[in-house]
Amino acid sequence: MDTAPDLAAVARLLADSTRARICWALLDRRAWTATEVARHAGVAASTATEHLNLLVRGNLLTEERQGRHRYVRLADPQVADLVETLAALAPNRAAPVRSLSGVRRHEALARARTCYDHLAGEVGVAITDAMTERGLLDWQQGVRLTGDGAVWLAEVGIMLPVVRTRRPLVRSCLDWTERRPHLAGVVGAALCRHAFESAWLTRDRSTRAVSVTDAGRNALSAHLSLTL
Description:
The chain is an alpha+beta fold. The chain is about 50% helix and about 15% strand. The strands form five sheets. A three-stranded antiparallel beta sheet has the order 1-3-2. The chain has a two-stranded antiparallel ribbon with strand order 4-5. Strands 6-7 form a two-stranded antiparallel sheet. The longest helix has 13 residues, at about 45-55.
């Protein structure tokens, strides 16, 4: 009997363009209502519900109900990493951006953004490279946090969760725009959380884009000799 995992089941879920757009939108980590999903995907509410039911049953999404309202979000960070990785491998068939505001939005996302709960884009990749150059990450047999890396996290004040989960301590995530890996996993999420809590980053209100503040540039220069 073939005991290989049913990869085709996951592939079928994301092979539909509407379901793929839904998962891509949910990378912002918010919980969306079915109405918001339908509006974003450009489909009828009943059609959106059918797609959401399939994604929930396929364990790509999780749902919460509050009264009559139904909210959906990506099931976990691994799903987010999968979607971002597939985006980096997918052909770019997007229509050309013609408006100035559209160009600026795209540039902002390419510069720095969140990928679920960790940093991506040019800034995310630059931080990963800087950590590698300082010997905080080792890539010889897949990425791992070194002893110096653990000391560095403590010195910076980046706290890791006390309760361990099945999520890897560190993992690489192929960046959609840079086509190179940025840091994900528990450490990637903790670094991102610390950056927001320390006001190194500010969020864009309408997209996943983030901006590096003066405090963030100073901190990254001090802690990683990184110039942005």
